[in-house]
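debug: dumping io for the single-chain case to check the tokenizer round-trip. Nothing else runs in this session.
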Amino acid sequence: MHGKGTTFMPSSYEYKDTSTRSLYGIFYYRLVQKDYDGASSKSKVVKVKLNNEDTFRLKSISPNPVLNDQINVEIYCPDIIQADIRVVNLGGSQIIRKKGNLSQGINKINLNLSEAGAGLHYVVVLFSNGKRQSKHFVIVK
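debug: decoded output
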């Protein structure tokens, strides 16, 4: 972005980082100021922790690893929405598919994994607004 030149008045700038795909996590930023004469200076690194509760997200899968045939999935929704919840194995084969409405807030869903074999699996949530979230878990038998 372009600066405002030499001034003794305070200036404010704004930049929206569109490179982050997530609205939660830890991000690090640093500003670099370049003068017209080519000189530059860097600010200290700033850590920004985002935990935006305004986004749909797959919060947790427990227990992990799975020792019996049940897992609990927690999904946060800021609004009521339809979702397609799937469990797939490492090869991409679908083991479970559950469709329905999720309510506002934390949704706790219990899934029976008796048809799944041991190994690495994924819970994939496809929200009707086009968002997609996934997390992995391990089944030990």
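debug: round-trip ok. The chain has a mean pLDDT of 87.
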